[in-house]
Every structure is written in structure tokens, then in C-alpha cells.
Amino acid sequence: MVPISGGTFVMGTDPADPLHDALEGPTRSVAVHRFAAGRLDVTKSEWTAFVRTTRRPIAKGCQWTGKQGPDADKNASWDDLGFEQSASDPVVCVSWNDARDYTRWLSRRTGKRYRLLSEAEWEYAARAGTTTAYYWGNGASHDYANHGTEKCCGGAAQGRDRWIWTSPGGAFPANRFGLQDMSGNVLQWVEDCFSPTYAGSPVDGSAFTTPRPIIASGDLADLSGTSTCSYRVVRGGDWGDQSRWIRTASRSFAPPPGPGPGIEAYRSGGSAFASHETSTNPATRC
Predict the structure, then answer these.
(1) Mind listing the pLDDT tens digit for each residue in 204-216?
(2) Which of 15, 95, 168, 245 is the most exposed place for a label (fewest CB within 10 A)?
(3) Burial 191-207 (b: 16+ CB within 10 A, else e)
């Protein structure tokens, strides 16, 4: 756990930004209360302990893994990915409900309250006081994050980034807050329901959890008429994403709309979660 002082920051990107995406606006000033975040994503080893202790069934159905064949997505799970992971790699192919249940189990086990981070808390923590596209500056670099090729989609091993798939936690430099792997490696769940715009979202650092019909067009037209809380926000990008999708302002959602393997079906990703204590409102990640 890394204590993080509260503060105010500008969330999102301006349309004048050459990397701006419509999902990242309108920009707004957000005040975040102090909290503490886990230095790393929750590891496969930690997740295994949760599953064994609770005897949780292993759900199958996960996109973008190393498994091959027509039924690859249907058969993949966090412990059967089609590529090797070490015990210190982040857990992947867990749903939002999985991540939430993990926080509840951790709360019972420790006597402290753990919860999913809000999207605002996540971006504040990822920026770590910076206003650049990435916490290390404006230029993409495999020396600071595990991400993919610039032509969609696939892993790339360059510089410090020696991994085609996931990398062990802590393989890349920490940001100014002492957090690692906020960009790249695996997607991270947050508490918020998904809205294609920040209009009407909280500015006090809390999560947006209001069910309402989505109004969308273009690439997101399939979401129109469905509920915001049918989807949850994922942040940070992952090992197979182009560099623009691992920017601190970049955001996406899961599960994908329409028929498919189910809620577990999304690009391999971990989940972000937070511990909440009265004195410091701390936070951690999964």
C-alpha cells in the first residue's frame, strides 16, 4: 500500500490534444481525497490463494489470450491462458464481479475495508502529478511499460519490455507516487459504470454508478439504449495495446456488447481495487 495525498487535477484530454479520444472529455477539474494504492496489481499467486480458500469455480471465456483454435475464447480462463505466467505476474481474465468479490473477501480476511478504485482515483494515481500523455513524458516507450505493436494488435518485446504477453509485477519504473504498472501490462477494473462522456460524472473523486440509457454513435452505436451499468470502465491498457491506449487518460469498457462468452470475455486484464480506512482512505490494485 502506497499512501497518496489528495488533490485536484484535470481529468481527461482536450480536443486539441493530437491523441485525444472522444471518451476522454469533456475535461473537468476533479478533487480527490487522500487514499492509498497498492504498489502493484494483484498477482496470480494472490488470486490463487483467494480461489483455493473460497473454492470459487473457475469461469471460462476470455478474449485475447495465447490459446489457439475456433473455441479458444470459450475455453480460456485465468489459469489456462495459452501462455506462461509466473506467480508474480498479474492475474488476468477475471470479471468485474470477480474483482469485487475479491475485495470483499480481502476485507473479511483483514478486518479492513477494500473496494474498487473510482475512475477518478485511478487517473489521479496514474498521473502522479503529471500532465503529460504518460507518467514519464509525452513520448511512448517500451522502457517504461509493457505494451504492444503500433499496428493492432499484438505484444511486442523491445527495450526493457521483454515480454510478448504479461510481465511480472514491478518490472518497470514506478511513477512519482511509487506505483508500478499503471500503464500497460494488464487492463484494470474500476468501480465506475461506463458512460461515453464525462458530462454529469462526479467531480469529488467518487465513482459514477448511476444507471441510465447510453446514447452513443459511431463505433459505440451498439451500446445505444443499453444501461451504463451493464458495463464497467477499464483503465491502463495492456500488453497487446498500441501506445495511445496506455496513456493515463485513455479509457475503455467491458464486457463487449452483444452475444459472446459472457462477462469474463474481455482482453486479458487485471482489476484495480482499493482498501478504505477511516483515517487515510487508502487504496490498492488487482
Answers:
(1) 999 999 999 999 9
(2) 15
(3) bbbbbbebeebbeebbb
Output phi, psi for 145, to 5 deg: -160, 150
C-alpha cell at 198: 464525462
Burial 69-91 (b: 16+ CB within 10 A, else e): eeeebeebbbeebebebeebbbb
pLDDT digits (tens, 9 = 90+) for 81-114: 999 999 999 999 999 999 999 999 999 999 998 9
CATH number of the domain where residue 220 is located: 3.90.1580.10
Whole-angstrom Cα Rg for the chain: 17
Does residue 14 sit in helix, strand or coil?
Answer: coil
CB atoms within 10 A of CB 13: 22
The pTM (predicted TM-score) of the whole model is: 0.92
Which residue segment(s) compose the domain that 245 sits in?
1-286
Residues facing residue 264 across a β-bridge: none
Q: Looking at the 3D structure of the chain, how many domains does it have?
A: 1
